[in-house]
């Protein structure tokens, strides 16, 4: 089987497996821990697991790895389901939970005890760590390691019925305290956590560890290829040890690939939570963080995220992916799909003195320069307009190519105007720029002159107030994940708000998108950037737009 979109080392392994067994019932799973919202790193894993399932006509399960109720929350379960559906993926059958298998896992744990391969330990957490040794020094056996099977069974039952407090007892595999693989030095299989669980409520007070639950859940679900990130490479030994020593009917295989690291970003739920808890960002869907909900709110589409995941590929090399690659994917898409309109972020008024005060023209302009199917909209032209403050300069500067006193500029879709005077208030603030409008220049090149630069504008009679949220990188270093104190590298200008105007003629079109995160609405505000309506904070009476991406790559500019 060959597919241009997905052709990586894992595909080669799967192809070989199909070669050996034509009837292989290919089955993957995506196993999030419901302890936070998903981010773009998870998207890499989601795309891989679901796309492979489509490609090989197999199945992909969604399984919550919910073995630690102290960190989990039902709201994360819901947001994870929502994000995967939004990306456009459908999991096979019902949502699965490791917690569904707690009774079976308990039986497997007893099986290990009966085989003399697990024991109840009473060392404290700190002692266990100390006894475990290091990469250079072997571990030490626990004094509780050699109790009888019967004694261990009784103690494990006592753990289950709540006779011990947290930390007083745990179940450990009896493997080898001298193993060169630290994960094999009698890893903990069960610990006591006295917290109600979002799925099983108060039914259990002992919880399996990730290592114990994961391989067995994979086996129960008949997963064939269990794909995870490289840091689980050593855990594979334990994964296989548990499956080998329990009476399972199916033995899945684990394969590892490198995790996604993205420039200027943090991809760890735990660290993202620190940013939220410290009020550095507003929540999990803050557009400055690369969570799926943050990216969605910023204006990223499912297709742009999938395209990004496809471009970065699947390898075993750990590297840092350029942020501009992510931006390239959305910019390319919005260049095709975003409606072109004009918006003014920092207005300055222009008075066209040679036009009548009732002058009103309506120009019908295309929503997209190259796609007539996207339709048109109307732009109103009158004798008072706003332009961008940065498109006018009072001081003389030879290099400046936009509006200056004595110079001309073309208004997009309209006329060439010439600035003649500045009107100021008593504090020397500009009230307006008084200009001459050359009404012979509509749609025509000026005679015997060079075409002046073109700027955008909005008639004062066609304005709707709006807030524009301009996002910049949250961190001022490329690799905050490597920084011990990543909170010290926050960019103070990660969010800049501007109050300006959009064209009022768009108002009706926009209203139905408010409060609807499934329907994103995009604009290219001409000469400024691509923006998306903020469906959360926008009100019918006050619209807010988030900058999705600049018109050009700014992070790699020399
Ligand atoms: P986090 O540090 O964000 O909590 P995690 O690995 O603990 O990450 P899980 O919910 O346990 O998060 O992960 C679910 C799946 O997503 C796992 O298979 C994991 O390997 C994968 N995954 C998580 N982060 C990344 C990443 N940055 N790149 C690729 N895959 C990832
Ligand atoms: Mg985790």
From TrEMBL:
<dbReference type="Pfam" id="PF20974">
    <property type="entry name" value="tRNA-synt_1c_C2"/>
</dbReference>
<dbReference type="InterPro" id="IPR050132">
    <property type="entry name" value="Gln/Glu-tRNA_Ligase"/>
</dbReference>
<dbReference type="Pfam" id="PF00749">
    <property type="entry name" value="tRNA-synt_1c"/>
</dbReference>
<feature type="domain" description="Glutamyl/glutaminyl-tRNA synthetase class Ib catalytic">
    <location>
        <begin position="27"/>
        <end position="335"/>
    </location>
</feature>
<keyword id="KW-0030">Aminoacyl-tRNA synthetase</keyword>
<dbReference type="InterPro" id="IPR020059">
    <property type="entry name" value="Glu/Gln-tRNA-synth_Ib_codon-bd"/>
</dbReference>
<dbReference type="InterPro" id="IPR000924">
    <property type="entry name" value="Glu/Gln-tRNA-synth"/>
</dbReference>
<dbReference type="GO" id="GO:0006425">
    <property type="term" value="P:glutaminyl-tRNA aminoacylation"/>
</dbReference>
<dbReference type="InterPro" id="IPR001412">
    <property type="entry name" value="aa-tRNA-synth_I_CS"/>
</dbReference>
<dbReference type="InterPro" id="IPR049437">
    <property type="entry name" value="tRNA-synt_1c_C2"/>
</dbReference>
<comment type="similarity">
    <text>Belongs to the class-I aminoacyl-tRNA synthetase family.</text>
</comment>
<keyword id="KW-0547">Nucleotide-binding</keyword>
<feature type="domain" description="tRNA synthetases class I (E and Q) anti-codon binding">
    <location>
        <begin position="454"/>
        <end position="534"/>
    </location>
</feature>
<keyword id="KW-0963">Cytoplasm</keyword>
<keyword id="KW-0436">Ligase</keyword>
<dbReference type="GO" id="GO:0004819">
    <property type="term" value="F:glutamine-tRNA ligase activity"/>
</dbReference>
<keyword id="KW-0648">Protein biosynthesis</keyword>
<dbReference type="InterPro" id="IPR004514">
    <property type="entry name" value="Gln-tRNA-synth"/>
</dbReference>
<dbReference type="InterPro" id="IPR014729">
    <property type="entry name" value="Rossmann-like_a/b/a_fold"/>
</dbReference>
<dbReference type="GO" id="GO:0005829">
    <property type="term" value="C:cytosol"/>
</dbReference>
<dbReference type="Pfam" id="PF03950">
    <property type="entry name" value="tRNA-synt_1c_C"/>
</dbReference>
<dbReference type="InterPro" id="IPR020061">
    <property type="entry name" value="Glu_tRNA_lig_a-bdl"/>
</dbReference>
<dbReference type="InterPro" id="IPR020058">
    <property type="entry name" value="Glu/Gln-tRNA-synth_Ib_cat-dom"/>
</dbReference>
<dbReference type="InterPro" id="IPR011035">
    <property type="entry name" value="Ribosomal_bL25/Gln-tRNA_synth"/>
</dbReference>
<keyword id="KW-0067">ATP-binding</keyword>
<feature type="domain" description="Glutamyl/glutaminyl-tRNA synthetase class Ib anti-codon binding">
    <location>
        <begin position="338"/>
        <end position="436"/>
    </location>
</feature>
<protein>
    <recommendedName>
        <fullName>Glutamine--tRNA ligase</fullName>
        <ecNumber>6.1.1.18</ecNumber>
    </recommendedName>
</protein>
<dbReference type="GO" id="GO:0005524">
    <property type="term" value="F:ATP binding"/>
</dbReference>
<dbReference type="InterPro" id="IPR020056">
    <property type="entry name" value="Rbsml_bL25/Gln-tRNA_synth_N"/>
</dbReference>
């Amino acid at each position: 089987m060959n597919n241009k979109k997905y052709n990586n080392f894992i595909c080669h392994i799967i192809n070989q497996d199909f070669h050996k067994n034509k009837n292989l019932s290919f089955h993957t799973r995506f196993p999030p821990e419901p302890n936070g919202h998903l981010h773009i790193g998870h998207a890499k894993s989601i795309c891989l697991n679901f796309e492979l399932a489509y490609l090989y006509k197999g199945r992909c399960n969604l399984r919550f790895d919910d073995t630690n109720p102290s960190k989990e929350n039902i709201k994360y379960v819901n947001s994870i389901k929502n994000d995967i559906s939004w990306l456009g993926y459908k999991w096979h059958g019902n949502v699965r939970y490791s917690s569904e298998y707690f009774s079976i896992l308990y039986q497997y744990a007893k099986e290990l005890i009966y085989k003399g391969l697990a024991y109840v330990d009473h060392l404290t957490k700190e002692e266990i760590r100390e006894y475990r040794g290091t990469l250079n020094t072997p571990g030490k056996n626990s004094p509780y390691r050699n109790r009888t099977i019967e004694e261990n069974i009784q103690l494990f039952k006592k753990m289950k019925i709540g006779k011990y407090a947290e930390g007083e007892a745990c179940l450990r595999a009896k493997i080898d305290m001298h193993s060169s693989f630290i994960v094999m030095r009698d890893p903990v299989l069960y610990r006591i956590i006295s917290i109600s669980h979002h799925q099983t409520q108060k039914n259990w007070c002992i919880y399996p560890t990730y290592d114990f639950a994961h391989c067995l859940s994979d086996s129960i679900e008949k997963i064939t290829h269990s794909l995870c990130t490289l840091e689980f490479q050593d855990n594979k030994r334990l994964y296989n040890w548990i499956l080998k020593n329990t009476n399972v009917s199916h033995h899945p295989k684990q394969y590892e690939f490198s995790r996604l690291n993205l420039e200027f970003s943090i991809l760890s739920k735990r660290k993202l939570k620190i940013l939220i808890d410290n009020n550095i960002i507003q929540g999990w869907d803050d557009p400055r963080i690369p969570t799926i909900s943050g990216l969605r709110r910023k204006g990223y589409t499912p297709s742009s995220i999938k395209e990004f995941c496809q471009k970065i590929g699947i390898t075993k090399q750990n590297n840092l992916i350029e942020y501009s690659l992510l931006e390239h994917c959305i910019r390319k898409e919005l260049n095709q799909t975003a409606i072109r309109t004009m918006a003014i972020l920092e207005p300055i008024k222009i008075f066209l003195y040679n036009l009548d005060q009732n002058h009103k023209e309506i120009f019908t302009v295309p929503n997209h320069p190259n796609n007539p199917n996207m339709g048109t909209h109307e732009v109103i032209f009158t004798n008072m307009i706003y332009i961008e403050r940065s498109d006018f300069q009072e001081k003389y500067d030879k290099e400046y190519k936009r509006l200056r006193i004595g110079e001309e500029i073309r208004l997009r879709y309209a006329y060439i105007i010439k600035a003649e005077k500045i009107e100021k208030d008593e504090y020397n603030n500009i009230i307006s720029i008084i200009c001459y409008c050359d009404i012979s220049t509509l749609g025509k090149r000026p005679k015997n002159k060079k075409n002046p630069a073109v700027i955008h504008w909005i008639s004062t009679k066609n304005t709707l107030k709006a807030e524009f949220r301009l996002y910049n990188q949250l961190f001022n270093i490329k690799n905050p994940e490597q920084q011990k104190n990543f909170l010290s590298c926050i960019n103070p200008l990660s969010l800049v708000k501007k109050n300006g105007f959009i064209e009022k003629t768009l108002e009706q079109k926009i209203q139905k998108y408010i409060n609807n995160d499934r329907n994103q609405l995009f604009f290219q505000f001409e000469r400024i950037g691509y923006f998306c309506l903020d469906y959360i904070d926008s009100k019918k009476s006050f619209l807010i737009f988030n900058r999705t991406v600049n018109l050009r790559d700014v992070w790699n500019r020399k």
